[in-house]
Amino acid sequence: MSADVPNIVVVMADQLAPHFTGAYGHSVAKTPHLDALAARGARFDAAYCNSPLCAPSRFAFMSGQLISRIAAYDNASEFRASVPTFAHYMRMLGYRTCLSGKMHFVGPDQMHGFQDRVTTDIYPADFAWTPDWEAADERIDKWYHNMQTVKESGPAVATFQTDYDDEVGFAARRWLIDRGRDRAAGDAAPFLLVASFIHPHDPYVAKPEWWNLYSDEDIDMPKVNLPPEAQDPFSKRIMDGIEASYVPLTEEEVRHARRAYLANVSYFDSKIGEIVRTLDEMGETENTIVIVTADHGDMLGERGLWYKMNFFEHSARVPLVVAGPGVAQDVVSNACSLVDMLPTFVDLGGGDACIFGEPVDGRSLVPLMHGETDTADEAIGEYCAEMTSAPVFMIRRGRFKYIHCDVDPPQLYDLENDPSELVNLANDAAYTEQAAAFASEVAARWDSEKLKTDIVATQRTRRALHAAMEAGASETWDYNPPRDASQEYVRNHLDWTVAASRYRFPPLEKEEG
């Protein structure tokens, strides 16, 4: 390992579409801290998640592998302990690693290579949210999204989400300060921190101070409005599943949801600022790569759709802003995705593919971060969760995006000429060659029928196991952060002046002589 490898801090949002940030050009969104990072670093304009749903996307991010390779199909798929993650590899390279916040790990392994985990998760770690493709048209009311979330948008003093994110931010900053204390004591090991927040994920409810940053008059409404009868078949199934097909929304309800979303984007941006300020206070800014991204986006009413679960731009694209030593001030147009983060981290940490324990589907983005050219211009997506009965695949390459599902007509969009994805070119005679090439590639990349068989089999297994767990067959897997208060602050076994000296940061300089 090189002696001058950088620290890495990842600040991750949940359900943040880049379109709703100042750094990516939104005219109203107030995101000064993200904007500042983008101004001194690289902004990636075609970064995608690999599955537009929380847990699968995060498992792909952690493992550098597509979800079909690791059977991470939905929000109740187990993330197997045998899958190597970037946390494992970075520990091998000498990094101190920490997760503060959400990663939606499902299964008994709640660490996945992190040396430290300083908060619980916000969502259940068991098989409760397993879809049922054998009854794909039936709503699972207990955990499916619905329009009530939109209708209840507005301000509130506190929510479970703000409680959680305030804890995540505090724990992340305290962990960073502890690394500063370590350095003062002579331990200069590099660190990797993932601070992962739940905002701006719905419910669209914001603290008053953030809600009041905006006014109703400021809020832009969806640019594209498609009624149910104008939707492609997959989008129609999503509308049915989230009740958007038959639960009408008023203009005020839509406006308030979008206002609360922007308010929560600003709230998340404040967390970026707190973490960056902590790095400044530690004196580590010049040796730390800061990366801001998200697990997926949010349609937020565009095309009549809400939340995620599709491969349109507002759902599938994520922000990716990188700043730090060696990072060029640049806007990067190459398509990339979250599976690229693992090889990027390893590359930054002085490692290479020789340490990989399993095949990795991503590529290092370090050359692009450094302002170099890269011929790779591709992102691959897979959706295998609720509101479909067959896998959905996406290939984004260059200006084109191709979407395939066995039970639906194919979709081909020219994002350069049609950024709103309004014209499906799959059956356009002028694009026959491109459509045929993408169709052949899908057939070569995936055995969709076998994948569906495997998915249905895991769903049956997990539903049976969940029923057994509900009956008391095992202990909960939800993560409970360990804490020993007897070793914290001032205790009888430690002179208080010693404790004060240990906790003070920066430490007092010792007088010579």
TrEMBL record:
Instruction: Name the keywords, alphabetized.
Output: Hydrolase
Keyword Lyase: yes or no?
Answer: no
SUPFAM superfamilies referenced in this protein's UniProt entry, alphabetically: Alkaline phosphatase-like
Single GO MF annotation: choline-sulfatase activity
Identify the EC number(s): 3.1.6.6
Q: Which residues form the Choline sulfatase enzyme C-terminal domain?
A: 454-505
* Superkingdom of source: Bacteria
InterPro entries in alphabetical order: Alkaline_phosphatase_core_sf, Choline-sulfatase, Choline_sulf_C_dom, GAG-degrading_sulfatase, Sulfatase_CS, Sulfatase_N
Pfam families assigned? Choline_sulf_C, Sulfatase
Keyword Hydrolase among UniProt keywords: yes
Q: Which residues form a coiled coil?
A: none
Q: Where is the Sulfatase N-terminal domain?
A: 6-350
Q: Which family does it belong to?
A: Belongs to the sulfatase family.
What is the official name of this protein in its record? Choline-sulfatase
Q: Which organism is it from?
A: Roseovarius phycicola
Give the source lineage, highest ranks first.
Answer: Bacteria, Pseudomonadati, Pseudomonadota, Alphaproteobacteria, Rhodobacterales
